[in-house]
Amino acid sequence: MANHYSDHPELKFELNHPLMKRIVELKERTFRDKDTYDYAPLDFEDAMDSYDRVLDIVGEISATTIADNAESVDFEGPHHEGDRVRYAEGTARNLDAMVKAGMNGMTMPRRYGGLNFPITPYTMCAELVAAADAGFGNIWSLQDCIETLYEFGNEDQHARFIPRVCAGETMSMDLTEPDAGSDLQSVMLKATYSEEEGCWLLNGVKRFITNGDADIHLVLARSEEGTTDGRGLSMFIYDKRQGGVNVRRIENKLGIHGSPTCELVYKNAHAELCGDRKLGLIKYVMALMNGARLGIAAQSVGISQAAYNEGLAYAKDREQFGKAIINFPAVYDMLALMKAKLDAGRALLYQCARYVDVYKALDDIARERKLTPEERQEQKLYAKLADSLTPLAKGMNSEYCNQNTYDAIQIHGGSGFMMDYPIQRYYRDARITSIYEGTTQLQVVAAIRYVTNGSYLAQMREFEAAPCSDEMKPLQERARKMADLYEQAVAYVKEAKDQELHDLCARHLVEMAADIIMLHLLVHNATQSAELFAKSARVYANFVEAEVAKHHTFVMNISADQLSDYRQQAAADGAE
């Protein structure tokens, strides 16, 4: 029987990373739950076995139930009935299968009905689901909104809402508005406190809301009258049981058809404050978006894996000129690079997820007791590392996802353009990954400070000093030389002291950093498991060496005088 987890040993390799020992130690608090809950692990090995077993269950459900329903869900889509959403029949079956398997509220404490899983195995589950149906992945994986409620809500809210999510109720994050897309500080959905009702009332419109008819919503709204910026925004919890929010329409999208993307109308919707006033955008949305960006990175890797599988299978079967097309250099070159990008992107994703796990677990411990100085230092270190890698993981994996699905269609030739093959669905689903939860361009904005403050370079130099196999040492040395080019390009931009030049070069510098870091991660992985990663490491090294040289050439040849060429060309074309 097909299984998206056991069929891909790269995932189990990432699960068994040495840092998981520390993550489990922090998450399980010396395994204190073992005497209270019969499903709580007894020790580290028992915890890892639990993760492995759950991943195997999700892998099987994904490769069978969800994959079997994917085509019909893509065709049927959700239904807009009155002011509500009804899922496609296949989506309802998928949700039922996941709820019955107990795959909801995975990261929540056991006292609320959760599994108390770290972010890393949960993120792997999100990848597995997305490989079968990215649209359903959006619905199921939005359960991680509960992380924000758990982190910033009060004990009463925890007790009322978290068990419902663990039992299978759905969530959404209602941020975007018709006039506030990426610019969330322009959100104008109005929140007013009613003394008569004893609650907050929300009024206005939200647009492009994924799973917009969910049971529990986290809503960004303007609580401070007379404000127009992010300091006037707060986060609210809206419970669908209270009424007051109607679905005006479901968007007609290019892809992810199973996921209802809704326009919502709030009319005196009863809501309650989550956390403190005025911190909705400044603090809570940032936490929410970081989790969502990790989720989209996982979705991107899942789609990339599915696209690679389809391209590989087709290339093995399709014969031209008397032999299978996989034997042609033009085709196996594409497949090799697809696999290298997939392995590199996945390595970056789970490196980031593990960093998130360490600092989030320490954050949680800090709610129970004061952290030791060593723990505070550890928390600060891993929070910084996670923040630096999150935009790279989301940005690069979503771009690789688009590239891999494009190449997989190309391998299919004319057949790939037909609706008869699933690759066209992966291609359509992939396109949104580099747009939602912050476009690739916004990921560059988030990442560039780690270029200029030296964080990425420090990570590269640390990797250069790490032990590696004799087979991988030449690649490690090539990565060091690439880092020298990167350091030179960064210095050139900083010394220019020109903000416009800085902004124009930002994407090139960020991609250079990502390329080099991912190569180092593949070198590390190939040192540990040459049979899984050595070929990808060598293929990826050739690819990124050319990419780094390309970006270096661009940056070093840009001058303040040349900036006007870019600006005036765009202005001239816009005026025509």
Structure description:
This protein has 18 helices and eleven strands. Strands 3, 4, 5, 6, 7, 8 and 9 form a seven-stranded mixed beta sheet that branches. It has a two-stranded antiparallel sheet with strand order 1-2. Strands 10-11 form a two-stranded antiparallel ribbon. Helix 15 packs parallel to helix 17. It is α+β, with helices and mostly antiparallel strands. The radius of gyration is 24 Å and the shape is globular. The model has no long low-confidence stretch (mean pLDDT 96).
Residue ranges: pLDDT <50 for 5 or more in a row? none
Determine the number of helices (DSSP H or I, runs of at least 4 residues): 18
Q: Give me the secondary-structure category.
A: alpha+beta
Topology as a string of helices (H) and strands (E): HHHEEHHHHHEEEEEEEHEEHHHHHHHHH
Rg value: 24 Å
The global form is globular
Q: Alpha-carbon distance between the termini?
A: 58 Å
Q: Strand fraction band?
A: 5-15%
Overall mean pLDDT stands at 96
Strand tally is 11
- Largest sheet report: 7 strands, mixed
| Helical residue percent band | 55-70%
